[in-house]
Amino acid sequence: MSRRRMLVATVALLLTAGCSSADAGGTSESSSPPPGARDAVKRYVEALNDRDVKALLDVGSAPDKPWSRKQADEIIRSKGGKGLTIMKAPIRYDLMGEYMGTVSLATSDSAGRSLRETVELMHEKSHWHVVLFEWPSGDKETSAT
Asked: Which domain holds residue 49?
């Protein structure tokens, strides 16, 4: 099962079991998410604008391997080089073992067109990354696989 599907299944199970966000921000009152999520979103947009495969791999915490380079190339081919500017990027946080976030990213491109995208974030191993890649089975051990 892909990493993204496993993450969605885990979230669905936890929500079904009664685990939900405590307030509109999505975090409980007793703790706050670690810093750095907004920076990860900015680095994602910069990697797209620069058509930078290495930067996209970095912000997605993916190894530099043929499978990940192929996925990064596809992402850049479809979304890259548009001169995106972040207009709004509110993040909803959830704490389910590790912190996760959902960004409702609103951007405008160099031609002034509005573009919207929902971006998933995960805080893992002391840093935030954008969930972009589907790991081949057995290639990465995480709390989401």
From this structure: 3-130
Q: Residue with structure tokens 């290639």? A: 139
- HEC string of 45-93 equals HHHHHHCCHHHHHHHCCCCCCHHHHHHHHHHHHHHCCCCCEEEECCEEE
CA separation for the pair 77, 71 (Å, rounded): 10
**What distance in Å separates the CA atoms of residue 86 and residue 47, rounded to the nearest whole number?**
13
- Inside any domain, residue 71: yes
- Domain of 126, CATH number, reads 3.10.450.50
**Residue 9 domain-assigned?**
yes
For residue 72, give the nearest of 58, 88, 85, 57 by alpha carbon: 57
Compute the chain's Rg from CA coordinates: 15
Query: For tokens 């969930």, what's the residue?
Result: 131
Q: Give 123's strand partners.
A: 128
For the stretch 4-57, pLDDT in tens is: 544 444 443 333 333 333 333 444 444 789 999 999 999 999 999 999 999 999
Distance separating alpha carbons of residues 50 and 83, to the nearest angstrom? 8
